[in-house]
Structures are given as structure tokens and as C-alpha cells.
Amino acid sequence: MTYRALIGSVIVAMSLAAASVAAQVSARVPQRGTPEQLKQLSSKPTPKLADGRTDFNGTWDHLGGIEFVRPQTKADGSICLIGCAPPSRAGGPPPAPFPPVQTDFPKYKPEFVAKVKDLTEHQVKYDTVLQCQPPGVPRIGPPSKIVQNAREVVFLYDDVNGSFFRIIPTDGRPRRKDVPASYLGDALGRIEGDTLVVETTNFNDETWLTDNGAFHTKELKVTERFRRRGDTIEYSALVQDSSVLAEPWSPKAQVMWITDVEIEEPARCEDRDLEHIVDGSHHDNPR
Amino acid sequence: MRCRVTGFVAVAAVLLAVSTALAHHSVSGQFDVNKPMTLKGVISKIDWINPHVYVHLDVKEKDGSMTTWALSTLPTAMMRRAGLTKETLAGKPGEEVTIDAVPARDGSKNLGWINRITYADGHSFAPTGQ
Asked: What is the pLDDT of residues B45-100, one digit of tens each?
């Protein structure tokens, strides 16, 4: 075999190997919603149900707090997930900051600032999300799937801590008075044109509003707005807890986009780490 | 298969460079990022769980005995963003892989955090870009 033929064979073999690896990892990969893609999706007609109301049904993707995960796959199939070196070609996106910089945080009344500081410094001990507990609202973020009928809307969540659901009546029935306080609260909804408005109360006080010690009380009320624009939904939330917050707070708004990648039963949540953390150090838990 | 070998200075330098970022994460609270090590062995099991997937690596020691390491890595949702599955992470049955890792700080034996898995054909998985 000549040197050129040998090199050719090696290149072919490497290409086949890379293609094989790429084929293994290509299935069911959620796609990142670039600004251009989101603009195109939002410009589509907003679908309506037979009764004329806006249709919110669908499986919806969003970056769910892990926008810093920007996988890069090399020609040989090697994969990097976080903090990857920028691609060699010019014009590639820069690596996302990791850990993510938290720019939105609720403002607490002065007498509770020290408590927030203590909680965040001992997040490993006090943040129940790290113990596989439900994350609460709005920390859980937008749902992964919405199922809508004439009487109610159902949110399904494919969360790192497990499968969660919320049932949101939209037929005008009164709020229930016989259910105990819970992690995800008790929701009522209404549809205002292209926007689904969800008001949730009756939370327990075991969850945080976001990372870094953002505790709340049972007085918490969260109003979420889902504005459908084409094949996207603009998600925002308003958090009110006047017993501890100095003012209402809105976490960073998100855009959801429709996807054909169906949600899956999440892997079970089983913490094996907390007992090994030696210094009680902080654990960022972006969502 | 070969026994566990210690890491190189270059790996330590890279780890030090990223330690600031990792200091905000539990990695540095649970694992000693200043003690890189390299393990060679066969992946015997993947625990596809949240919040961290665990890779079990059978490492043959010099005396012929087998040590199984439990090596932690990222959550399943992050793996899915890259199309990684339990099967692709495990590699081929019986395949020898090289895992760059850092050990537990609390003295737990055979517990670590994965910096990189390099498979027999040369392709690799680097959860945090190291």
C-alpha cells in the first residue's frame, strides 16, 4: 500500500468512526432556539381552538436555566458540554458564562436580608431542591408540555427533580378551599386573548423563589403570563409576598418554542452528593 | 487495563485555571480539584440518575485485584442537550476507557468527579470542557 493510499484509508476509517458516533448522539436532541429561529417561529399565525380561544397545546422547549450548556461536537465525535473552547471558525458563539451570572433577585425587606445571606451561605443545608424536593413556583420555570381542554389547562414538567404536574381550571370555577398548602400551590387560570394568565396561591413555605436563599412565606402569590405568538410563548411571572419582600419581583422572562421532541419520564432523583460536601459550601442551582 | 496513575502538571494547571468557576459549584466543595488523577478501566455500570449521573469504573490494580470507582458527572438533562444517552456514555461492552477525574475531599475512597472520559477509539466526553 502506498503512503497516500494508507493515509486515505486512515481518513476514511476516521470519518466512518466519527459518523458512527455522530449517528449515536443525533437522535432526540433538543435544538437551541436562536433569536433568528424564535423570530421566525413567532411570526407564524397563532393557532386557535374550535371555540375561538387561543391554543396553548403542545410540547414546548426552553433553556430551563441551563443556557450555559452549549454542547460542541468535534469531527471525531468528541463532546464538550460546559465551558467549551470556542469553535475555531470565525463568528462562532462565545462560550456561555459558567456558573451563570444571576442578575434577577427579589428585594427583601431590611429585616430579612440577613436571613437571605445566611440561607445562601448554607444553601447545601437548607435548599430543599438539592434534596430532590419539588422546586416550587416560579423556580420550576415554564412547563415542558401543555394540555388544554374546555375546562382546564394541564402543565407537565420534565424536571431534574422528577415529573410534576399542575392542573389549572379555566372555566371560572372558584378556588378550592379544602386542599393543603403544597410545593406547587393551587392554581386558577383565565385566557385573555392570546394570553393565559395563571394565578397560584396556597403554597407551603419549603421552597425558594430562586437560587441563593430566596425564601418565601405561605402568603406567596405568583401570577404567570403565557402569551402565545405564533409557535412561541412569552413566559413571565410576577411574585408577590408582602410579608417578606420589599416589592413584587419578576424573574427573567423566557421564551418557549414548540418542539417535536416529546418529553420523557425524567431519570429518578437520588442525591448522593450532599453528605460528601465537606465545607457546606454554596451550590449554584440554576434553573 | 492498567492501574490508576497520577495526573500530569499540565492537567493540574488547567484545573487551577478553571477552579474559580468551579468554586461556585459543589464540585470544589465535594471534590479536590487540585488532585487530578487518571484512571484506566472498564465502565461496569451507569447510574442514569439526577441530579448527577454516576459512572462506575472497574480498575484493575497492580496486585490483580479490582477496584470499582463511583464517578459523578452532570445531570441527565444536560447530557440530553448533547444527545448523550446512558448507552453512548457507557461505550462498548468491555471497552477500556481513560477517565481524568478528581477525588472526593472527605476521604471517601474510590469516589470522584469526571473531567473527561476518553474512549478506545479516541473520542472523548468532557462535561466541563477540561
From this structure: 999 999 999 999 999 999 999 999 999 999 998 888 888 999 999 999 999 999 99
Whole-prediction pTM value? Answer: 0.82
Whether chain A has a CB inside 8 Å of the CB on B83: the answer is yes
B80 touches chain A (CB under 8 A): yes
| Window B:99-128, CB contacts with A under 8 Å | 104-106, 108, 111, 121-128
Q: In this prediction, does ipTM exceed 0.90?
A: no
Is residue A196 within 8 A of residue A153, CB to CB? The reply is yes
CA distance A269 to chain B (A): 4
Q: Which DSSP string do the residues of chain A spell out, in sequence order?
A: --HHHHHHHHHHHHHHHHHHHHHHH-TTPPPP--HHHHHHHHTSPPPB-TTSSBP--EEEE--TT-TTEEEEE-TTS-EEEESPPPPSSTTPPPPPPSSPP----PPBPHHHHHHHHHHHHTHHHH-GGGGT----TTTT-S-SEEEE-SSEEEEEEEETTEEEEEEEE-S-PPPPSSS--BSS-EEEEEEETTEEEEEEE-B-SSSBSSTTT-B--TT-EEEEEEEEETTEEEEEEEEE-TTTBSS-B-PPPEEEEE-SS---PPPPB---SGGG-SS--------
Distance (Å) from the alpha carbon of B5 to chain A's nearest alpha carbon: 23
How many angstroms away from the CA of B63 is the closest CA of chain A? 29
* Chain A residues within an 8 Å CB radius of B47: 270
